[in-house]
């Protein structure tokens, strides 16, 4: 990791610390710690079990997608590969947006697939996860709106989510429609700038404009293969939905651990909306996601802010920190010592 990357990482870690400091100041750090110390251990353990179930469901998503791309990876190994992918996302600024290139490299190294195949695999997983998440937001917010008045904060969050999803979908559709023109216009730019990021050491091929163009054409070919296989596509979407529901169950268990219950319909939209903060320039969205969850859950549940914060910290321990430890160990077990 060069000096520039270290500076970016240091800045993102500083941002995370600052957000947590402000959050604890606003909600009362001492009260949060008191709630955490009185949490029911067995229900905390249940939270972690649901966290493992979520990780397993989305690792099976990756297994199905890689199988569609004719990458032969055992289902058990895909769990450790995906855990390592989550680790890469969680320690990279901008969350999944920053971790996808690293995750693609990890997949290619551990499965002997081409880099662009790994990139299609992890990008497809992230894109397909959007479909169930948007559906859950619409169902949850729709039920909430039918019984309560939507506050300004919730309206802003939902509006922002819709804008982001529509914008991303539009960019993806336009890129796909004009993919051949896109390749022609960008291959040269990529080949001229690749040296700045020292990508040559990750491949035995010379990074020329033709090489980049060939890889981009293969990339779009792989995307088409994933999209047209309806049976596998339905299976992948089902596993995605199951993973989201496991996350919801983990959040419910975390609140139960601190002695409170919250409505399921709130959980359905809070988790996808809160995860939008993962696009912030923070390691895996750490700090930003916790603050977003608290900001959404306090007005929609009526639970005291300190209790909400404690429950969110337990939930994030299962969804963020557990995959970090499992994924870090997976990278070592898979023989990946460095990605940069």
Automatic annotation (TrEMBL):
This is YbhN family protein. Coiled coil: none annotated. Belongs to the UPF0104 family. The chain crosses the membrane at residues 6-28, 35-59, 119-145, 157-176, 233-256, 262-280, 292-314, 320-339. The keyword Disulfide bond does not apply. Its main location: membrane. It is a multi-pass membrane protein. Keywords: Cell membrane, Membrane, Transmembrane, Transmembrane helix. One of its GO terms (cellular component) is plasma membrane. It is found in: Cell membrane.
């Amino acid at each position: 990791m060069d000096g520039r990357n270290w500076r970016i990482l240091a800045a993102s870690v500083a941002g995370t610390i600052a957000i947590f400091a402000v959050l604890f100041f606003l909600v009362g750090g001492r009260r949060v710690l008191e709630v955490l110390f009185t949490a029911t251990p067995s229900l905390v353990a249940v939270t972690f079990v649901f966290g493992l179930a979520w990780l397993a469901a989305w690792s099976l998503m990756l297994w199905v997608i890689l199988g569609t791309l004719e990458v032969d990876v055992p289902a058990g190994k895909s769990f450790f590969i995906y855990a390592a992918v989550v680790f890469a996302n969680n320690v990279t600024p901008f969350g999944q947006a920053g971790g996808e290139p690293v995750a693609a490299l990890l997949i290619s190294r551990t499965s002997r697939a081409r880099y662009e195949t790994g990139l299609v695999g992890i990008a497809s997983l992230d894109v397909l996860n959007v479909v169930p998440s948007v559906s859950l937001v619409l169902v949850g917010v729709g039920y909430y709106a039918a019984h309560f008045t939507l506050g300004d904060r919730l309206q802003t969050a939902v509006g922002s989510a819709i804008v982001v999803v529509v914008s991303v979908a539009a960019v993806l559709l336009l890129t796909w429609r004009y993919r051949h023109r896109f390749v022609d216009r960008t291959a040269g730019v990529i080949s001229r700038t690749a040296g700045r990021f020292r990508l040559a050491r990750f491949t035995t091929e010379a990074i020329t404009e033709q090489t980049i163009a060939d890889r981009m054409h293969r990339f779009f070919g792989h995307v088409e293969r994933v999209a047209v296989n309806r049976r596998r596509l339905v299976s992948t979407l089902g596993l995605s939905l199951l993973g989201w529901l496991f996350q919801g169950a983990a959040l419910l268990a975390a609140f139960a651990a601190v002695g409170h219950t919250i409505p399921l319909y709130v959980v359905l939209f809070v988790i996808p909306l809160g995860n939008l903060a993962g696009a912030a320039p923070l390691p895996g969205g750490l700090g930003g996601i916790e603050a977003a969850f608290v900001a959404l859950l306090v007005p929609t549940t009526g639970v005291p802010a300190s209790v909400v914060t404690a429950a969110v910290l337990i939930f994030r321990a299962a969804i963020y920190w557990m995959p970090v430890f499992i994924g870090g160990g997976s990278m070592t077990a898979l023989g990946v010592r460095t990605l940069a």
